[in-house]
Specification:
- Its main location: cytoplasm.
- It catalyses: L-homoserine + ATP = O-phospho-L-homoserine + ADP + H(+).
- The protein is α+β, with helices and mostly antiparallel strands.
- It folds into two domains: about 150 residues, 2-Layer Sandwich (Ribosomal Protein S5, domain 2), CATH 3.30.230; about 130 residues, Alpha-Beta Plaits (2-Layer Sandwich).
- The strands form two sheets. Strands 1, 2, 3, 4, 5, 6 and 11 form a seven-stranded mixed beta sheet that branches. A four-stranded antiparallel beta sheet has the order 8-9-7-10, sandwiched between helices.
- α1 crosses α3 and α2 crosses α3.
- The model has no long low-confidence stretch (mean pLDDT about 95).
């Protein structure tokens, strides 16, 4: 028996659509695996009732198949499904690490990125690595089209505010523009470069500036009730940057040290003003999946 934990993540970070990701110190999923003749899945925790246990419809089933590692898999969800916090990636990453250890498959953490991405395809229809990369490697990550990933350690205060609404990954991808103007392209590249430099320096001001995005975020923000007010409230409370976390509906804010509590309170109040309940996680850039 092997148990592994993998963290919630936030993908895109505004200017890095399908490319950037960051691991959060909490919440997290825990996955326990035991050898079995065929894969069986049990799910408990946040939103468990909405997660299929059929191995062909669950991300961990795809991971077990990719590793040729049938197992009895128990998932304890700490990351709510359809939250924009990498719920499926957390399960996929934890399962990949645990099954790799259980069956001694010999994969490195970087080698497990495309394996865990196969699990993501079950949810979104495509094998994206922008969430599984930080869930496996920790820190701030940049993924390539071949699912290769680079990770950078960063020390940054973050707030992830999860409203009591649901935005599906498929719906969020459906509103993404199919083309962009050269002006927006240049602005996005400049912002993404600024964000990357900020992560390398653990500089909240640069990261916040670099999160601005004229293309994807405005389209996805329309799916989140109260987003504009929450963003404005967070910035007024001391956030250096605010954006949609992944596909949403969570909203991610970067803060200066000592500002997380006030930013978290402002974001919860902002959603409340829109008639939406929410929960704010005061977190930091965290580590990747670990065997417990």
């Amino acid at each position: 028996m092997v148990t592994a934990r993998a963290p919630a993540t936030s993908a895109n970070l505004g200017s890095g659509f399908d490319t950037f990701g960051v691991a959060l110190s909490h919440p997290a999923d825990t996955v326990t695996v035991e050898r079995a003749a065929e894969t069986r899945i049990e799910v408990t925790g946040a939103g468990a009732e909405f997660i299929p246990t059929d191995p062909e419809k669950n991300v961990v089933g795809a991971v077990a198949d990719a590793l040729d590692a049938p197992a009895h898999i128990r998932i304890d969800k700490g990351v709510r499904p359809s939250s924009g916090l990498g719920s499926s990636a957390a399960s996929a990453a934890a399962a990949a690490v645990a099954l790799n250890d259980l069956y001694d498959r010999g994969y490195t953490r970087h080698g497990l990125v495309p394996v865990a991405a196969e699990g993501e395809a079950v949810v979104s229809g495509e094998a994206h690595a922008d969430n599984v990369a930080p869930a496996l490697l920790g820190g701030f990550t940049v993924v390539r089209s071949d699912d290769g990933a680079t990770s950078v350690d960063a020390e940054l205060p973050l707030v992830a505010c999860l409203p009591e609404v649901v935005v599906s990954t498929r719906d969020a991808r459906g509103v993404v523009p199919e083309s962009v103007s050269m002006r927006d392209h240049v602005e996005t590249v400049g912002n993404a470069a600024t964000l990357t430099a900020g992560m390398c320096r653990s500089d909240p001001e640069l990261v916040g500036w670099g999160m601005d995005d004229p293309v994807v975020t405005p389209a996805r923000a329309e799916l989140i009730t109260g987003y504009a007010g929450v963003r404005e409230a967070a910035l007024a409370a001391g956030a250096t940057g605010v954006t949609v976390s992944g596909a949403g509906p969570s909203v991610l804010a970067v803060c200066e040290p000592g500002e997380r509590r006030s930013v978290a309170a402002a974001m919860v109040e902002g959603f409340a003003d829109a008639g939406v309940g929410s929960r704010a996680y005061q977190t930091v850039v965290g580590d990747g999946a670990t065997v417990l």
